[in-house]
Specification:
With 188 residues, the chain is α/β, with parallel strands linked by helices. The chain has a single domain, classed as Oxidized Rhodanese, domain 1 (3-Layer(aba) Sandwich). The chain is built from eight helices and seven strands; from the N terminus they run ααβαβαβαβαβαββα. It has helices spanning 17-35, 37-51, 60-68, 83-88, 103-106, 124-135, 147-153, 173-176, and strands at residues 56-58, 76-79, 95-96, 116-119, 141-144, 158-160, 163-165. It has a five-stranded parallel β-sheet with strand order 1-5-4-2-3. The longest helix has 19 residues, at 17-35. It is elongated, with a radius of gyration of 24 Å. It starts with 16 loop residues before the first helix and ends in a 12-residue tail after the last helix.
Amino acid sequence: MEILSPIPPAGARVPNVRLGFIMTGLIVAGLALLAMRGVDWFLLKKSLRHRFPKVEWITTQQLADWLADKRREKPVLLDVRTEEEWKVSHLPGARRVDPSAPVESAVAGISKNAPIVTYCAVGYRSGDLATRLREAGYTHVQNLEGSIFQWANEHRPLVRDDKPVSTVHPYSKLWGRLLTDDVRAPLK
């Protein structure tokens, strides 16, 4: 009968089973977290607030309540997306502004004291415009938290050619992951 030594010979490579299990567990947990929309949204919103610290934010619920309140002056809704995105859907009453438009053309005819809410797909382009508007002296500018993606995911009103619709342009395959399947329009 052969007696085996628990000590491997010098230079032998011995797998560390425990380390393997830990690494596999971390990889699986990381992939699960990345697949969760909630984590994506949480990280995205943190990133946006960090990137645009001077911007005031309004939630989708706050905007919906404001738009439904007949006693309050309605905000000017500025959709800061491309024409291709706009043609799929937008918030009722919104006005499209090219993302690279100078402030003067973006808000032509709008008082510096008018309430303004900017939005785009997720908040980057509209956050940039909101920042530029505030720097130009517009005093009541807010950016819609979660922008049109969150608005659509909550099944709030969207229109195309003044007719109700339910889908949103996904911007790209990557960003489109933030939309639920039932509101994501196909990419063309």
